[in-house]
Fold:
Amino acid sequence: MASAVMGSVGSSLGSLAGGTFGWSAATWSQIGWTAGVLAANYIFAPEGPEIRSEGARLEDLRVTSSAYGLDIPKVYGSYRISGNIIWALPLSETRHEERQEEGKGGGGSSSVSIWYTYKGTWAMALCDGPITDIKKIWFGSKLVYNNGDFAAPLEAGKLTKYLGTSSQSIDAHIQANKPDTPAFRHLAYLVFSGIELEDLANAIPNVTVEVQKGTDYVSTIVSELILESGLEASDFDVTAGVDEVQGYTIPRNANIRPSIDILLSAYEYILVESDHKMQLRKEEQDPILTIDEDDLGADTENGIETNHKQAIDSTKSLTIRYANKDSDYQTSAQMAMSSNTNLRNELVKEVPLVLTDSEAKALAEKTLYKSYISRFTYKFDLPFLAKYLTLVCGDVVTLEFYGYLKDVRIVGISTSDAGIITMEAIELHSSTFTSSAIAQDTGVNSSELKEPPGPTDFEVLDIPTLSNDYINNEGVYLIASGESEGWTGASVFSKSSGVDDFAANNTLTGKTGLGLSIDVLQDASTHVWDRDNSVTVTSSVELLYVSEVDLLAGKNYCLLGSEVFQYSESIDNGDGSYTLSNLLRGRRGTESHTSDHSIDERFVYFNNLSTGFASSTINSDSSYTALTVGETTFEEVKTVKNTGNNLKPFSVSYLRSLRNSDDSIDLIWMRRSRYISGYFKTLPKVDVPETYNIEVYSSGILSGGYITNSPSFTYDATKASNDGVILDSEIAFIIYHYSGLYGNGYSKQIIVQPA
Structure:
């Protein structure tokens, strides 16, 4: 009798105990509360006598050790794993104190801020050794080591790597505090010494490491696992396993069978027994022979017994979760779904393998199809002939019955005393070994060492409406950027005049383009494209080209001095400057500032991700400061008066006049909305009720004023007489769109000449 050393199709993926992959990190208690930092309420304490504020301390400075008895994983290829703390010193505490004087002379008050920072020293076990290298180290989500390069808080000299060799020495840090410590040979581990924990919540961080063992193939991994089971090298032949395994991890004490099954299922191999020896074969094989219909059913009347499970019990969808090669080994998922809408089972399988998106998608699709096809099973008897005696489990044969040819894989063989060979088989389709599925792109997360966050450049802008979200709100706009590549954002704090303490206002992420003008932007019409002028500016972000259609839909808003404009064309000059052209000028009600420009004007490129809004009362002063994410030092305080520009109505457009035969004057114009909309979209009324104030000037003197609720006005003899104006003379009219929230908006003037 022969038997297969293989699991049923599809079942092996479910054999991974616990449904997790990798080696779970040791769980330890968070070490106390977050230590005090130089927070806003410490810096901006109220006036009065000395105020003493002391940050939280870590009362228990002992680092909780790792859980006892956790499995140490085996790693093949390259894999990102978490470690288990095997030794640690108590955290080292440093006390900081800062005094700030308030007021002038001897009558002022002072405040003292006290806070604590901590350093950690610990050792962390990784995996079985020997390994070839430690490629990357992450503290939380931050990459702090990359192929020999360091990023804060990890520094050269504060990391010692042990690769798990048979000759590695005892670590000096551990031995100095624990003289009887072993060398932990055959265990790869790391020792961190004197790590600043201030930016890590003053606790030992969650550390993950990319471990590299070298190049591993299916054959080398399967061979190692079989040898661990107690078999000899002469008991098996796995040389057919030529596929390279990018990464695989299993617990050291895991059962051998499921560990092999996961690997074989993913790379489409089977282990079979032939001539009392295990052999590794590719799952996809050509049939060895065709079994004639006359030979089927040698001991039965029916010839062949066929069975199949109900389709409704089959799997509807299969999701494979895997370590993504293109995403720093983060967990990604690819799903395959059956076209049969009546199915109901949805499965999620975790595989501790490093795969690409495409590989995982193909694995999900092929595994799902194999599980569906394997519903069809066959049992048949064969005569005791030499050609059938050589068949073993795992062989593929073709059955000929009822005029059909069916490829099947033999999964069971038994013989009887009567000289009958009974075989069991599952159906095969060649299409189960191919996949043209297109994977869902899970994104690329290429790790790079990041610079420290550095300072924040932030601006408080009292400018016209930039967002419909705040179109009727009193306040100013906030923008921020940073020069460092490590800058990820900043929190802005504000306080009104007369208020002592700053309060959190906004968190700004992403970079706004901040810079200066290098040359002067010349005056131009605001009614047509400005294709004649250009301006060269510096910018902290890249300034990209957009089409004119996208521009009209609201892209590429910029502020230069006091003028808001948009650009379509951008030339990168290669020195941090850009030349912008194909412009729309005087946007958002700033048409009166197109001629105000000079060199070294403030330039802002607006990015929605980094534009915030701070509420403040019109005609009041408020103070603002910013704190870079990851830093503890606040930026210089800026005080800005809100003049209400966000609420100020825009000037009217297309103002025209007509002098009638009786010398009366008809004025007509179009309302402009502050609402931001796309190209040729209807603009809702914002400043309601619709009201306009009209001023009449004769010889430069204000002579009369009128109110109208429609975009037209007639100045006739009666009005002129009341104003003391000669109707048949040069008369100037200034029109304001009026808002109950703000008052008169931007003005628009027209001068009407005598007939």
About this structure: Residues 357-373 form the longest helix (17 residues). The domain at 653-752 is CATH 2.60.40.10 (Immunoglobulin-like). Residues 89 and 177 are 8 Å apart (CA to CA).
